Amino acid sequence: MSKKPTKAKVTILGSGTSHGIPMIGCNCDVCNSDDSRDCRTRPSIFVELAGSRILVDTSPELRLQCVAHGVDRVDGVLFTHHHADHVAGLDDLRRFNYLMGGSVRLYATEKTRNSVERMFVYAFDPNMHYPSSKPNLEWQIIDDEPFFVSEASVIPIVLMHGPLPIRGYRFGDIAYCTDCNEIPPASMERLQGLDVLILDALRITPHPTHFNLEKAIEVAAEVGAKRTIFTHLAHEIKHDRIEADLPEGMKLAFDGMVVE
Ligand SMILES: [Zn+2]
Ligand SMILES: [Zn+2]
Ligand SMILES: [Zn+2]
Q: Is the pTM of this model over 0.90?
């Protein structure tokens, strides 16, 4: 085992749902809110663990998120799944190619890899001669076994996102479980003894592929982490109003929130 510190530090780069908040053309009180915590970019986190810097997903606002939080090095990018709100910023990884003088390693299941390669064909097809700079990326395929990003140990957590199995990730005593409406029993076991669980809680109204807040609170109580932070938030969630009524130990994420 590494002698470097094993406590993870997580920065929530984006706490919003796939539309982002404010949404285009919406005049509701959350989309018009003056509270900066109600302004949400698409879902992503940045993890510092055992000397490694890890990005989870490449949201459409990846550039803005990295600039806002001074992210200038990435040792690995972990993908949860291939939906556009989690991958559309992939091309921005070119900056890390320049900054670090080499390729960026991507970690994903085979299924996610195949989908991302179809979405960004110019970046991955060696026969496609792209007349400008394209991201220099290499894959490491993961499944259910724990793996390392440099010296940081990562445990994948299978989550159900409607019919789609996706991956959450555990970094030491912090776990990130976005985009899910069910946690299988074997994954519940991998979430035991957590300090912090970061969990999908899309909105108040039920949804076929995401936990709504009521269900997320129930599942969070079952997991029993010391603290739970709800993320992937839609515009039904007004930060101050909803957070005031959450059970003890549960909070709402906001862009730039740091969890240690
Ligand atoms: Zn709205
Ligand atoms: Zn999704
Ligand atoms: Zn999503």
A: yes
